[in-house]
Amino acid sequence: MDGLARRWRRVSAYAAHDDPLTSAANWIALVVAWNQPFYPLYLWAAVGADKIAPSFLTFFSTPFFLAVPAIAKRHPLAARILLPLTGIANGIVSTKAFGVGSGVEIFLLPCALIGAALFRPSERAIGLVVIALGAAAYLIPARFFGQPLAAYTAADNSAMVGLNAVSAATLVVFIGLLLSGAVAASEQRGDQAPRKK
């Protein structure tokens, strides 16, 4: 139990930041990275073990999510930009891997939410660019992606749509709760720019 408490303290220290919005970005990034290894298991339950290989492509984004808190120590704004851009890139890769029928592009919605809420009024242009990139990724024509990397049936696609919808909805709720607290904390601080450590 002590070992678990020590690990939690290390994770908390890694995610900590004086700026509430940057701290929220750090926690979002770590939660997403923590959950990525479980996605193949969820997919296994949904479509079977023989069709989960494409899910390993999503691991290419894991180091970028894990790097967000480290980058935030020196460049908070860069870290907050990296988070949704990594999510958008992962959404595009995942859509290629699983096909548009899987509904995996729904994960672009949390990226748009981050773009809408993770940037201050003085950074609004950056947030709008993030939202526009998420929308552009969502609107990529299906023919661009071609065939998925495994032979998914209509039943598989239906199962993946359900899995992805629940996962994305859970992530949106988590982000919303986290960011509402961060915005409140930011307002109490007078919405000051974060201090460099």
Topology:
Layout: H1 2-15, H2 20-35, H3 39-47, H4 62-72, H5 76-98, H6 108-117, H7 124-138, H8 142-145, H9 154-188
Keywords summarizing the entry:
single chain; 197 residues; mainly alpha; 9 helices; 0% strand; globular
Summarize the structure.
This protein has helices at residues 2-15, 20-35, 39-47, 62-72, 76-98, 108-117, 124-138, 142-145, 154-188. It is an all-alpha fold. It has one domain (18-188).
Structure characterization notes:
This protein is 70% helix and 0% strand. With 197 residues, it is mainly α. It is globular. The protein has one domain. The longest helix is centred in the last third of the chain and has 35 residues, at 154-188.
